[in-house]
Every structure is written in C-alpha cells, then in structure tokens.
C-alpha cells in the first residue's frame, strides 16, 4: 500500500502545475475563454508539448502509457485552475475509447494527430431519453457496404463543437436498453449528413447537439460488443471528474480560508468568528474524504474486475459530489455577496463543481448503482 | 385555536384569485413559473394593472392608496400572487422607502413621492450597502456635506438591486463623521439623473444582471430631500429593515416552485419510470414539502401574534422565517437540479428574443441559473449566520 | 385563523402546569418511578381530581368533550415534565377507542371507573410481524355464544401491565393485512387464558407482552369494521405524541441554554462560543418548526376527511421526530459528559424523544405515508 | 501509488484471522456483535489468550513484549480484531500509561509495571478529567503535596472509565499551585487500594456503568510513583494524548456493525418486504458505507504519511479521523434504530445471567442502549467542537 508518487509522476505533476501557474491564473483564463473556440489553442499546444495529450496511449501508439494515477494528477491540477480546454473530451473520453476499441490501423491513423494537438475527439453518446443510463442507445447503425450508416440524435456531446473526429455509439441490434448490440463508430465531423449545434455550458465549457442522417462511418472494434468498453471508459471518465472536482474544491477551500483571513467586519477578521472557523473545518473534512475517494477511484478505475471497479468509482462519485456540493455552497456562503459575482473566482469553482455533479451520473444515480451492487463491500 | 379561514377571508381569497387569473399576462406567469427574470416593462405592466384595481400598495395607509386589509388579508393577497405565480410588488418603493416617507417624511415629500411609487412612475433602489461593509452595515463611509441648501455626496454603494432601472435611490449617508458609528448617519433621497452618479453593473454567477455598484462623485442633492432629521437616519433604516417580515419566508413562492417540480418530475423519465417515482427523489421532495408546511404554520403563528400584539417592534421570530425560508428556497432549487439531471449543463443566453430551439426540455435552461442565483438568499438581508446570532442574543439571551 | 387558547383551555393548561410544577420536578419524578408500578398512584389520583382523565369523553359520558387542542395542551405539559403515568395508554388510546367504538351501555359500565381513576385501559394491538402497519392484525376472534373468543399474541402494549381492561384488536375475517375484518374487543386483564409479562421501556415507562388463549371477550362496535376507528385513534395518538415531544424538546432546549449560560470553560461561559450559540439557535428553529406541525396535527386530528387528517398527522410526525432527534442529540452534545449521565435530566428527555420516534410509526414510515398520499398538498 | 497489500501483508492478515477464529470465545464475539458490554473477566480472558500468543501489546518495543510490526501490520491486526469482532486491547495500560512508562519512566517502574500490563495482571484507569474542567483539561485542581517520601493527594477525578475494575490509576495532579496552568502538573501512578480512595459509579443514560468519579482524601502515594520529573506531567500527558491516532476512527468496528446491520435488515420485515429492500433505508445505509470507505482511505493515508514522516508529532489530520469516525459510529447506531423499529422500546436488564425470553428479536434490547451510549464518542477525547477548533487553528491557520 502506497500513496506516494513515483519520480515520473512527480515530474508530470510539477510540469503541469508550472504551466498553469505561469499561464492559467483567473485573468488568463478569462482571456483563454474569450476566443472564438471558447478556449485557447495556444494552451492546447502547450499540452501537446508537455506530452499531456499522449498520456493514456501505449508506447507503441506513441504515448506514455499513463494510468489512473497519471490521469488523476493532471485532472486535479486542471480542476485547481478550472481549465476549459477539451482535454476531458479528447484525451480521457476519446483517447480512452480509441486506445481500447480501435484497431492498430485506426490508431495509427488517428492518434498521431491527437498526440500532436491537431486532432480533437469527442464522444457522441448521450441521447435525449438516456439520462445517465449508459446502455440506453437508440441511434442506429446499419451495414453499408464496407462501412456503416448512422442515424440518430446525440446530445450533450462535450466539446463536440470543436472536435474533428466524433466517436459515436449506435445500436446495431437489441432493444433500447440492451447491454448487447451497441457499437462505436468513428465519424469525421464534416461527414455529409452530420450536423452540429455548439453551445456554451454553465461552467464556461462547450458542448454540442449532433444530428446524424445517413452518415457513413467506420466501426471501432466489435460493432455489437462495445458496452464493456464504454463502461470501462465511463468509469475512467468518472474517476477523472472526481480528481478534477477535488482540485476545484481544494482551490475553492483555499480561496475561502484566504478570504476569512483578510476580510474585515465588525473590526476583526471574519476568520476570528468561531462559526466560520468551524465551517472552514467542516469543508476541510469534506475535502479530505473526497480526496480519499478520488484516489480510490483512480487506483481502481483500471481494475480487471468490472464489478469492483464500478463499485469503487460510483462510490467515489457520490462522495465527491456530496463534498463538492457542500464545499461549493459553503465557499459562496462564507464569501458573502462577493462570492455571487462573476468577477470573483470562487463562484466559478462552485459552478464547475455543480456541473461535474450532473456529468456521467449524479449522486442519486451512483448511489443507486452502489446500492444495487450490494453496498461498498466492507 | 382554529386553522380555517373565515368565510369572509375565503371570499376575499377567491376575489384575489379570480382577479389574478383574469388579468395576469400569460407571458409573465410562464417566465416566473420557470424561474426566469422579468423585464422592467413587465413589472411596470403588472403594477399598473394592480394600481388600476387599487391593489398596488395594499399595506399602506388608505390615505396614500392602501387597502385597509387585515394582516390575514395581506397574507392571502401575497400568497395568491406567489401561487399564480405573479410578480409581488417591487419592494424598494412599496415596502422600503414608502413606509419611511409616510412615517418620517414631511407633507411635501409624501405628496411628491408616494403617488409615483404606487403606480411605479418612479422606480426606486436601495443605497445602503457599501464595499467592505457587508453585514456590518453601520460602518458605511459615503459622505454628505452640507453646502448651502444642498448636500454634496461622495462615496460608493454596492449590491444595489435593479439600480439600472431606477429613477431614484434612497441612501444612508454619513453627515457627522465624528459621531459614533450608528450616529451621524442621515437618510437621503437622490434623483438618479443627478450629475455625478455612475451605475456599474455587477454580473452574478448565474449570468444575470440584478445588482450594481453606484458611484457618487460630488453629487448635489437638494436639502429638501433629507428624510426626517439629520443624523437620525439609522433609526429610519432600522424601521425599514424590521418592516418586512411576513414575506421573508417566501412560502408562497416555494409552494409554487414545488408544484412545478412535481409537474416536471412527472415528465422526465429515468429508464422505465419517471423521476417522480424514484423513491429517493420522492423522499427528499416530501421532506422539503413537510418543512415548508411547517414553515407556513410558523409564519401564520408569527402573523397571528403580530396581529394580536401590534406590529412595529422587530420580532426575532422573523429570523426563524429567514433561516428556514432561505434553506427551503435553496433545497427547492436542488430538487429541480435533480429533476433536470444532465440538462443542467447547457447555458442559453438570458436575453429576451433568443429564438434558437432549446437543448433538452424547454424549461431546462433556467434551472442551473436559478440554483446559482438562489445561493444569495442565505446571504442578503442579514446572512443566516447573522440571523443565528440574533436568535442566540435576542431570544436565547446568550 | 386563530392560535390563541380560549379561557377554558388557558385554565386547563394552568392547572396542569401548576400540578407538575409542585409535584413533578426531576427528583419527584424519580420517586414516582421508584414505586412498584413504576409510576405514582397519587399523581394519577390528582389527574382524576383535575378532570384530566375525563378529557376526551362527551358530557353525556361524564366527560369534558375536549378535542385535539386540549389533548395537545396536556401532553405538551406532560412532555416538559416527562410524566410516566399511563395517561397516553388509558386516556388517549383507551379513552379514544372507548369513546368511538363502545356502545352506550359499555361506556356507562367502563368510563366512570376511568374518569375516577380506578380503571386503567390499554390498547393491545401490535404484533410481532406488524411493525407500524396498523392493518396487520393476525390475532383472531371467533364467535362464542353471545361473546367472542380471542387467540393470538400482542406485543409492546403500552402500560399493558397495569391496565384492568384491555382493548384488543383481532381479525374476524379477511387476509393478514386487509383493511376489513378487524374488530375491537374488551377484555378484563384477569380473564382466564390471558397472560401478561410487564417490563420497563428505555424511557422509564412500562409495557407488556400479552398472550391470548381462548380468552372470552365482548366486541366494541362492529366486529369487522374497526379499522377506521383504529386509524382515527392512531392519528389522535400520533398528534398527542407530537405534542408531548414538543414539550420534551422545549425543556431539553431550555436546560441546554441554561447550561450554556452557567457552565464555565477556558475562563468564560461556554455560551460565549459562537459555534455553541449557533447550535442553540438551530435547535430553536427546529423546535419552532416542530411546534407548528404539532399544532397542525392537533387541529387536524379530528378532521372529518381521513386523507387530509392522516396527511397532516403523518407530516407532523416526520417533522417532530426529525426536530426531536436533532434537539435531543444536540442537547447531549452541548452538555458534554454530564449529559450522558442518569443523574442529570437532559439525557432522559433525549431518551423519551428517541422512543417517541419509534412509537406509532417512525420517520421513514410516515414519510412513506405522506409520499404515497401525494405529498403535503401544498 | 498502489492500494493492494503486499503478499507478506496478506499472509500476516490470514495468520491473524485464523488465530482469532480459532481462539476467540463465541460468547465474547456474540456480545460484541450485538453491541453489548463485556464483563471484566471476559476482557482478561481474551487478553491472556493474546498474551500467550505474544500479541497483547504489539506496538510496544520488543524488549517490553511488543511485536516489531510495521504500522501496516498493526493496522491489519487491529482491523481483524474489529472485524471478528474481538475485544481490542484495553487502552488504559496498553496505549496510555504503558508508552508513558517506557518512554519517561525509570527502570524500576518499567520492570514493575510493564509486564503486569501486558498480561492484564494490573487493570489501569485514567485520572485526567475533573468536574468542571471538561475540554479545558489543564484547569485541573487535584493537589499533591510532598510530605517526606510521599505525596499526599486530595481532590477528585471524574469520567474515569472502568475504574470499578482498576488496580491502578495514572493521575495528573497539581504539584505547584503557583505555576501557570499547564506548568506545575505532575504525573503520578496510584494504587487503587491505597486508603482514602473512593470510587463512586456514574450511571450513564444507556443504563450502563462504564464511568466513575474517583475521590482522593489524603491519599499517600510513594514518591517513587512519580513518572519523570515533577511539574513536567503536562508534557507526558500531551505525549499520551497524541499517541493514539490510527485507532481513533474506529473504522473496523463500524465495518463490523454495518455487516451486522445488513444481516439484521434482511431478517426484519416491513409488510411484504424486508427492511433492507426499503429504498430510503437502503440509500441511507449506502451513504454511510461510502463515507466509511472514504474514512478508511483517509485513515490509510494518515497511516502512510506517518510511516513515511515518523510518528510522535501530533498530526492534526487525526482530528479529521475523530470527527468523521464519531459521526459514522453515531450514524450506524441510528441505522440500527431504523432496523429495530418499535422493538427499540423494551429495556432488558443489562446484567449477565438474565434469562427471561427477549421481547421481539433477541438482538433488539442492545440497540437503543448502544444508540444512547454512542452519543459519547463525539464528546470524549476532545469533543468534535474542539476537533474543529484544532483543524481551524493547526491546519487552516485561522
């Protein structure tokens, strides 16, 4: 049992933190968001230079073979800085799916562009009715010569507006929520019959609605057996979101404690009031509990046993979301009015935490999953 | 002890309800139902409708346009507005400066200002808070120096709600810098068109523009706009702050939101079932409903005790209404976040006239902003921490 | 709408409070509990003298015709003093059932003894499997000449050990949880075939297990149609428990605030610590919410519409139990170690509140009922 | 980063588990499983079993009977005891006075006392708290005045756990009344059989007798029973209090209770179903399980950081373990109250040898007392309010 970073991990963390320290403070972030994409191509390039875009890929594919711990380190730092670039969509989701589902030929064709920062990926999976049920896929794929033809509507495709390649889930066989019969398909964003509508999300990120009308696509792996891979990558995605949330709540807590130390009222620092001290302490407890579970999720997110993996990841999401809600709300409350303003950073942490809660399953959803799995197997 | 309304009260309720049904524009009702902000014109439009009926300033004395209603009738009126939902009267004129003017102002001020509040010819805003003051209101720094028959005002106010629409602002200003904190403060009425006033919007985390900073740079205010006596302004401010009690719990508004949640949770599906059928969601919803029912009863008890003991004195029980009322308002927005699920994410531009089709259900885009915005209710008007201090001191004697 | 007491109610409250003030402080209560019955026959006699035992009965039956408000006043005062005498069992439960189910002849035979303090009643209803389901009655009653013969086992019969007359529910027809087919039967405690085992409860009250083996009994009212009366009286019982709980939490709160004002630590009264002040304030908020709902329950407990009646009563039980849990636990916490001792009063309030929570339906049970009734009908 | 135990650690765990399985008396296991109190003889019996195996004082230095285990092994050992459930070593000798004696005591004291702690020949109790001191431990008043080669002790201790069984008590006494609060305190070892000592039981609200008052009336204590230097006792006390950290969260005990809850909730029925199938109960249970899993991870992180950074310094993270650990222990007793439902009410006499049949299920009578008793865990050992003060000051710098 060991919670220490190895030398490579320490170097990775240091280089990410240095980049963000230099180029991603709150004012810089505003500038990054003000461009036409809603994020900064220059920052994206720096991610490529640091090798962050190669993180999850095997060395044969030109990557670094990073696992859950490495993803955790990067995402936690991103959470501290509220990074808005499409890393989660391209590397965690898209990269995770490509690494697991694509053939060697497909990987050789697509991944170099991803690693070099030229190609962005997105995962077009959710549908209007699916909510958080990963198997509720109704978009269809039918054979079309060598390839496939896709029809359907995908929603809430994270950073789907700026991706050049979409990975689309579609049903080849089976009923609406069957585990079998779902495939993954690779589609160029400019393919005929594919239309997108991009929009901002509440936390200053981007997403898209995607409509598919007889769109030609190639299958990634077994066109009827993708659900295990989707579930695996979804668990990795949740673990990554947990880490990001921990970074965000850590920073929100720091901002709050700093505020308590500097803000004067009734002639004293408000941090002198015991009720506020105790709330600060309760936030710390919530943060440490979340951090523990985010670590568990990171370490278990590649576990070969899918039941144990999902149990740990879902348990982590519940804890992290509950802590995130408490810390986000408390951070606003302890800041008072200034915390409600766009000009001040803390509200943006609160908003990102609120949106993470609603991404890839909320508290009730994951609580149900853990409960149905018989609890936390204590 | 008797819970039921009298026959007369029931008849009054029906009259109010029928009037609202017949006269409330559907556009306004729909916006409020989904937690959206109203435009200035919509608020004016509705106030004029009420004014024509004689109901725009019901709790004022009859001579200034009030209705001579019992506290119960006032309660029923405000519950019916919230239930519709219709806009409740804009508080800055009606509940705040209006009562100060008719209680402490001179005849000229009453004649000049009150009728224009009643029909919303004048939109007022409140100039109390200052940067750095927060809950410590009396530490305000904005100065007013007498110069002939004018005061010259310099300083800055903040958190000024809807100042962007305002014609007038009522301000606490420091007229005696040597007096102790609460003394040396005066209550001034200032025309927003006076040279030297600058309004700077503050965008809130929901993306909305409700609040502002207001800067005063050598603003010359006629001395006739002083309310009451110089350096007595803190007394008038305390009167003003203790004046709005029954509405503070926002029971009617939370009831309307919960009815809406039930409708929406019966539309949204989880797998084979509906959100409303999810046992955990249902238990949370029911817990909030029970707390709200209890709060309604608590509010009625406060109302009854005020009707018996007379109003005017600050009632520390209003701190209970504020704490629990704000907790419930916030819990309600969390329930709605549970209903909307992943469709909390998309951000639709908040402007009127936006006409792209919605992402997800057409009510979804207001849910997250409403959740964000509602964090304010445990902060403003005396944060919940301040309210607990009040209970500990004024009620528990700690 | 009116929350004031009328003149009679004010007199009632004053006379109860005066009796308890004079003869029921914490030390006196210990003496009352130390007798062979576990409660004080002298106090019981005083209740009779004050007319409290006649409260719910009509004037024709020699009673005062008191309703929900009167029961609330008495029970709230009893809660403040932690009265251990069998008032709830005899008057609220037994009296309520007799008043509603018994014939004029039966009332004339039994009630004078109750009113004069000679006869105590108990309601033998719960069974091992029934938990909080009022209709889950499996004890049986079969015709036996003019009367009936009862068989079965009743559990948790409150103050069943000291009652001279038991009112027993038994099934005449229908399946285990059917609403129809249940009757109420009057049995003398010394009837052949009836055996009792009395025991103390956690809060210093008493209860009994009752076994019925071919016990002869007389029916109270319609032997197949008692469920509506049982539900009515159960709602009145819950309303009474809510009032008692409010009295108990009010006193627990007072004791706590007094303690905060007197107890010194680190050179100051601990009531000077803001975190403890805020907890005290939160207890006050919880108390006022509970009081509001106890009033609602009292006023609605005789409402002619059984759906509205039960909704209000169940909602009140949820609120009161939640407030009671918070206030009881907080009272112990703010007292520190001394609150954990039997010698000090506050722990006894905590225990009584905990047991009220588990009597006639706990939080989850009543939350389910309100939920199934469509919520609080806002 | 690696979560799994090493092969050696797993082998160790299996060895411990097998030993407990083979040697733990069923009667003791069943009592603990249902949250009942053990008799003194049962605790001695189990300690002797561990002592024979050489495991009665594992974390002590080997020369005094310790096991030279890694922190992980100690953790595994204590988890396995809790999981069985078996009694964990009685803390007063093992975790409290033992380490003080072998760290600060003289050779004679070590020889005399340590072996008798290891086999529980001597039962120790702790004389720190005094009436009126509470969380303000250093305000203690018990006096010890030097008289020749004795100290004469007068005063009163309270909350003295299991003093009714104790052969010895370790006390903080004031030897210099003129020194400042924390100075002038000494650490004395006192034979409970010394004339002038009176033990008065304090009954707790669960009906149990765990704690006592201990009165000292001109009690003559040989000066050789002073540990370390006179007036340095506060240092030894701080060492003692910071010494017990990993166990403070009681993760293993809560895990065992939750496993038991799941068994019982599958036995008790609600209508057609079982308590375990009730969605609201299930959600509450799962929430607690998740918090407990998180606490276990937090505990492992503290353990790992102590293993890396060395022990001995007070670690403020232990306040997190104490707060969350006590909250979870209390939540677990509330869940069990939910399972037992109406059968929380009957009170069975707590004595051994009671042989009437139970009222309701045979585990029910221990549920409410355990709920009552467990309120103490957020009070003793530094209340949760004190723990929050520690976090605010030592970690957050407020």
UniProtKB/TrEMBL annotation, chains A, C:
Residues 239-373 form the Acyl-CoA dehydrogenase/oxidase C-terminal domain. InterPro entries: Acyl-CoA_Oxase/DH_mid-dom, Acyl-CoA_Oxase/DH_mid-dom_sf, AcylCo_DH-like_C, AcylCo_DH/oxidase_C, AcylCoA_DH/ox_N, AcylCoA_DH/ox_N_sf, AcylCoA_DH/oxidase_NM_dom_sf. The keyword Flavoprotein applies. One of its GO terms (molecular function) is acyl-CoA dehydrogenase activity. Keywords: FAD, Flavoprotein, Oxidoreductase. Transmembrane segments: none annotated. Belongs to the acyl-CoA dehydrogenase family. This is Pimeloyl-CoA dehydrogenase, small subunit.
TrEMBL record, chains B, D:
One of its GO terms (molecular function) is oxidoreductase activity, acting on the CH-CH group of donors. One of its GO terms (cellular component) is plasma membrane. Residues 6-119 form the Acyl-CoA dehydrogenase/oxidase N-terminal domain. It comes from the Bacteria. Residues 231-396 form the Acyl-CoA dehydrogenase/oxidase C-terminal domain. Keywords: FAD, Flavoprotein, Oxidoreductase. Residues 125-219 form the Acyl-CoA oxidase/dehydrogenase middle domain. InterPro entries: Acyl-CoA_Oxase/DH_mid-dom, Acyl-CoA_Oxase/DH_mid-dom_sf, AcylCo_DH-like_C, AcylCo_DH/oxidase_C, AcylCoA_DH/ox_N, AcylCoA_DH/ox_N_sf, AcylCoA_DH/oxidase_NM_dom_sf, Mycobact_Acyl-CoA_DH. Its cofactor is FAD. The keyword Oxidoreductase applies. Belongs to the acyl-CoA dehydrogenase family. This is Pimeloyl-CoA dehydrogenase, large subunit.
């Amino acid at each position: 049992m060991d919670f220490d970073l190895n030398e490579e991990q320490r170097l990775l963390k240091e280089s990410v933190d240095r980049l963000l320290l230099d180029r991603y403070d709150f004012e810089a972030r505003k500038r990054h968001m003000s461009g036409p994409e809603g994020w900064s191509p220059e920052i994206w390039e720096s991610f490529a230079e640091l090798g962050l875009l190669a993180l999850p890929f095997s060395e044969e594919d030109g990557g670094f073979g990073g696992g859950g711990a490495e993803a955790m380190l990067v995402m936690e730092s991103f959470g501290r800085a509220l990074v808005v670039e499409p890393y989660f969509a391209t590397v965690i989701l898209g990269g995770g799916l490509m690494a697991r589902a694509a053939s060697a030929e497909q990987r050789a064709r697509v991944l170099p562009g991803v690693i070099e920062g030229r190609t962005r990926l997105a995962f077009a999976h959710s549908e209007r009715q699916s909510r958080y049920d990963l198997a509720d896929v109704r978009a269809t794929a039918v054979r079309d010569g060598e390839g496939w033809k896709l029809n359907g509507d995908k929603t809430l495709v994270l950073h789907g507006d700026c991706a050049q390649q979409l990975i689309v889930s579609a049903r080849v066989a089976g009923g609406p929520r069957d585990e079998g019969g779902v495939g993954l398909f690779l589609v160029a964003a400019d393919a005929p019959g594919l239309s997108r509508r991009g929009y901002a999300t509440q936390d200053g990120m981007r997403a898209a609605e995607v409509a598919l009308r007889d769109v030609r696509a190639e299958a990634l792996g077994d066109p009827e057996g993708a659900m295990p891979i989707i579930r695996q990558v979804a668990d990795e995605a949740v673990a990554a979101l947990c880490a990001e949330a921990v970074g965000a709540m850590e920073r929100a807590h720091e901002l709050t404690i700093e505020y308590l130390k500097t803000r004067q009222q009734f002639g004293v620092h408000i941090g002198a009031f015991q009720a506020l001290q105790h709330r600060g302490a309760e936030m710390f407890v919530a943060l440490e509990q979340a951090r523990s579970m985010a670590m568990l999720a990171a370490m278990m997110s590649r576990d070969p046993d899918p039941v144990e993996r999902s149990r740990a990841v879902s348990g982590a999401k519940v804890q992290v979301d509950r802590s995130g809600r408490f810390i986000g709300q408390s951070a606003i409350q302890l800041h008072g009015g200034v915390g409600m303003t766009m000009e001040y950073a803390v509200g943006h942490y609160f908003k990102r935490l609120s949106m993470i809660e609603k991404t890839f399953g909320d508290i009730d959803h994951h609580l149900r999953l853990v409960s149905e799995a018989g609890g936390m197997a204590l | 002890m008797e819970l039921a309304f009298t026959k007369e009260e029931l008849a009054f309720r029906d009259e109010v309800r029928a009037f609202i049904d017949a006269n409330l524009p559907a556009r306004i009702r729909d916006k409020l139902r989904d937690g959206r902000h109203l435009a200035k014109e919509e608020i004016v439009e509705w106030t004029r409708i009420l004014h024509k009926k004689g109901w725009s300033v019901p709790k004022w004395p009859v001579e200034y346009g009030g209705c001579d209603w019992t506290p119960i009738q006032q309660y029923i009126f405000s519950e019916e507005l919230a239930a519709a939902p219709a806009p409740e009267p804009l508080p800055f004129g009606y509940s705040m400066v209006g009562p100060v003017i008719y209680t402490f102002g001179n005849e000229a001020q009453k004649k000049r200002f009150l009728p224009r509040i009643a029909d919303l010819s004048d939109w007022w805003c409140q100039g109390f808070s200052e940067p750095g003051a927060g809950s410590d209101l009396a530490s305000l720094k904005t100065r007013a120096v007498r110069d002939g028959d004018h005061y010259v005002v310099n300083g800055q106010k903040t958190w000024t709600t809807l100042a962007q629409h305002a014609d007038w602002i009522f301000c606490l200003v420091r007229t005696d810098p040597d007096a102790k904190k609460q003394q040396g403060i005066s209550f001034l009425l200032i025309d927003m068109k006076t040279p030297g006033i600058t309004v700077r919007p503050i965008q809130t985390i929901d993306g909305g523009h409700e609040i502002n900073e207001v800067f005063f740079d050598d603003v010359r205010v006629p001395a006739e706009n002083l309310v009451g006596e110089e350096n007595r302004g803190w007394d008038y401010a305390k009167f003003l702050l203790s004046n709005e009690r029954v509405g503070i719990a926002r029971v009617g508004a939370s009831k309307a939101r919960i009815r809406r949640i039930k409708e929406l949770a019966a539309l949204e599906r989880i797998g084979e079932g509906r959100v409303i059928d999810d046992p955990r969601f249902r238990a949370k919803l029911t817990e909030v409903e029970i707390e709200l029912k209890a709060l309604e009863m608590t509010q009625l008890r406060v109302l009854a005790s005020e009707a018996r003991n007379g109003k005017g004195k600050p009632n520390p029980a209003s701190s209970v209404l504020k704490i629990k009322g704000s907790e419930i308002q916030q819990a309600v927005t969390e329930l709605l976040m549970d209903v909307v699920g992943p469709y909390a994410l998309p951000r639709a531009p908040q402007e009127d006239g936006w006409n792209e089709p919605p992402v997800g259900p057409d009510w979804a885009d207001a849910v997250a902003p409403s959740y964000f915005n509602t964090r304010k209710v445990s902060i403003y008007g005396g944060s919940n921490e301040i309210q607990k201090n009040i209970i500990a001191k004024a009620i528990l004697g700690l």
